[in-house]
Amino acid sequence: MNCDRFWLLTWTTYGTWLPGDRRGFVSNVADDDGSGVRFNQPSTPYTRDVRPLREFAIAQSGEPVLLTAEQAATALEQFRDTAAYRGWTLFAAAVMRNHIHLVVGVLGDPEPETLLRDFKSYASRKLNETFGRRDRWWTESGSRRKLPDWNAVVAASRYVENQDYPLAVWVCENTGEQAENTGERPA
Which residue ranges form the domains of the chain, and what is each CATH number? Predict the structure, then answer.
């Protein structure tokens, strides 16, 4: 394993976390003076529970995508294949009904949006081939958290492995061993 950067990638299935959601959301909203603002920086406030916006988003998006166990297993297999094809190292993956978590290491410094795009597009193609065509399986973009060191990779992998209600989970068997071999202790 030889990686320069590590990422925890997270995204939701289409239509399961929309603008206006009571859990909070990142989208353009009107500020106090009526101008548009987007709260999307770490440690800044975010907007939550805007019922008219949520109702509009539900009407526009249609039925949400909730994955089945078979779909989750298919997506997980494709995530592993995509990582291998791209020369990336997948350390952990969890597929829940409405969201995905991946811990991945890469050589060089590709844009994390490229990682998200490739994982999502190859999985969409495989899901469409296997379960029938859908216009959208995933929301746009997703969370891209850079992991600063090996201890963070181990901690993120444990976080992914211990998700509540996963449909499919995979964790690299030797992640802890690799931490011991580098002289760093797992978090």
Answer: 5-14+65-181 (3.30.70.1290), 29-61 (no CATH)
